[in-house]
Amino acid sequence: EVAHAATEFAHLFPDVSAALLLTCAKFVQKTIPPSEQFQFAKDQSGTGNEAIVLQLLVLADDLPALVECSNCGSVPCVDGQVVAGADKFTAGLKMRVNKTSAYWGVNGGQFAGKVYTVLGVRDSNNVVSVECESDGFTNNFYHIFLYGHTFCYGCTDAS
Predict the structure, then answer these.
(1) Torsion angles phi and psi, residue 137, rounded to 5
(2) CA 105 to each of CA 34, 55, 112, 153: distance values in angstroms, whole numbers, following the listed order
(3) Is the dihedral of CA 57, 58, 63, 64 positive or negative?
(4) For 33-80, what is each residue's pLDDT tens digit?
(5) Rounded to whole angstroms, what are the CA distances from 95 to 72, 81, 151, 154?
């Protein structure tokens, strides 16, 4: 609908319309994998939006490829956001403590400002083993999942 509105008013507001279509194309690129784009276009057949869909797919194809973050594995990168879910704690993940989590004390306590690397998760995802990069300290943090979001992604700290 947004792309349709952009094309409807392109003759009146060409710059705004082009910017809006580009934003729509970026959304298509992020949300519809290339393997599903043909089906997306096919689903639009007969709706009257065929030309707009084709235009969006062409624009999306011309955009620079999205690059998966080497640390969090997300597109776009989720640096600074909480690591939500035991399955996200993978070996090698760079993190910082979530200063708002009660697990660490006020403002992250003595753990704040340091970069931690996940060494592994064990005991049915109740224990995360990490190493502190600044001092080589290795520790097991027990039951961190009971305390909510204890760590944040440290993607800018990943090399």
Answers:
(1) -65, 130
(2) 45, 52, 10, 19
(3) positive
(4) 888 888 999 998 999 889 899 999 999 888 887 788 899 988 878 999
(5) 9, 10, 6, 4
